[in-house]
Amino acid sequence: MTKNMYRTHDCNSLRKADIGRQVSLAGWVNVTRDHGGVIFIDLRDREGLTQVVFRPEENAELAKEAHTLGYEDVIQVSGRAAARPPGTENPNLATGDIEVIPSELRILNRADPLPFPLDTEPQNEDLRMTHRYLDLRRPRLARNLRIRHRAAKATRDYLDSQGFVEVETPILSKSTPEGARDFLVPSRIAPGKFYALPQAPQQYKQLLMVAGVEKYFQIAKCFRDEDLRADRQPEFTQIDIEASFVMPEEIFSVTEGMLAAIFKAALNIDIKTPFDRLTYRDAVNRFGSDKPDRRFGMELVDLGEIFRESGFKIFRGALDAGGVVKAINANGFAGITIGQADELTEIAKLHGAKGLAFIKIENGEWKSPIVKFFSDAEKAALRSKLNIEEGDCLFFGADKWEIACEVLGRLRLRIAEMQDLLGRARSPSAPDWDFLWVTDFPLFEWSAEENKWNAMHHPFTRPKTEDMPLFESKKFPEVRAEAYDVVLNGVEIGGGSMRIYEPELQEKMFEALGISPEARQSQFGHLLRALRLGAPPHGGIAFGFDRVVMLICGEQSIRDVMAFPKNNRSMDLMTKSPAEVDPKQLRDLGIKPAKDKKL
Questions:
Q1: pTM of this prediction exceeds 0.90
Q2: How far is CA 9 from the centre of its chain?
Q3: Of the chain's two ends, which shows fewer C-beta atoms within 10 Å, N or C?
Q4: Do 300 and 272 lie in a common domain?
């Protein structure tokens, strides 16, 4: 490396061994303290802090100039590394045994008063986003970016070691129905026609398998024009993987090895492999979710046999209609408040329940209006089945299987938050990393709004071989997909499938989804042609890279692991985009804004 004119060391590298050495440092003024004319500066760069001391008796002019330094001024100092006076060492600082006595000070840039201090968490997120370059100076976000870098590097290194080739796919692509709304880009060269930004490289990676690449990956930018939430952005990053001549077990093995490499590089921990596995049916049946958080108990318990002949009409009616009666036991939650009960009832109604039945066990009594409808035998069976103890609170769901599981699954997570069951598990200092494969998803899901079957994942997902007779006979609710998700601590971080590679089967899949022959050709003709020209069996998986880094960093929003995210209204307040453009640009594209009467 060539000699640096600004510094010989970073602000976290000087130690006792450097005492007496001539050094140069550069960075930002983190703190200034005036102790009777002696000016103490904590100088900061991305690596850490070093104390710089200006003493008038050693250099009066320099001390006078240092007195003018302000918060976040950018400076360079050169001088001698010295031991701190006995008793003034700082054991909490890596450089706490030394200080720099400068002989030269260069003020590289003055900083105006900052819109918010960097040593506290700004409460106004719009203010943070407007001045994101300042927000990123804060240690937590700076650390997050470096963890993200290490995770990306570990991904590339591991997949390269496994023979995968990184291939970039186009950003300007074609709009095809893949589950979310596309961002469209008008073409000046072809007036009235549009590119689309890719929701994912799905079709391109399958075409790369037809091209004989065999093992592909990409850390890819993806774009979806959808409503935002904490783990969603209009543009996000995906680890995209596809391979030919593989079975699911090989995808599982590569995935587990890659995630192990990421966590080792980012946190220096060894995660447990192989991951546990649950089928979709088992996950929903036991946890009420296809992305179950297993770090606490409170599993859903089926009570159908207990209430099959019950005199309680609500439970008996649900069972007679082909539904289920299920419950969860919130241990130690008998002290539930009226406000908490009302909130949980609203959650239940929001997800399809007509109301919420629960029983509190207090002072040996079962307290609930529904208890009077239970026989002694039913109460005894409940006590055994749910392991009921003093202080417990039981919550019931009686409805169709899907609704009962969904409702109790949502309640389970909210009750866990109310009881702070996840406080330790969500702490980055003491994480509990629970990785899980969820397999055998349904191939289809019914859309009542559209009155048609949709693909649960995407239209290129392969039916399970043993379910092909069900697919051929159009028993769509029973058909399972050769699809799989990776779940970490209740968050889906990745999903994939084996793909359809036979053109005839792909045509049948499009037919099942109600896609007309004309639409198939206009939207997917390139893929169908490719499948007829020697497509190998293939499959893959994709990961939400931002989500993985968010969990590693212990953050609650992917915005805090992205350098320049949009806010919750999909706006970049720093650059003020989206923004109006020059009318000439619109004329060149043949576009007239809706609010304008004329071009």
A1: yes
A2: 36
A3: N
A4: no
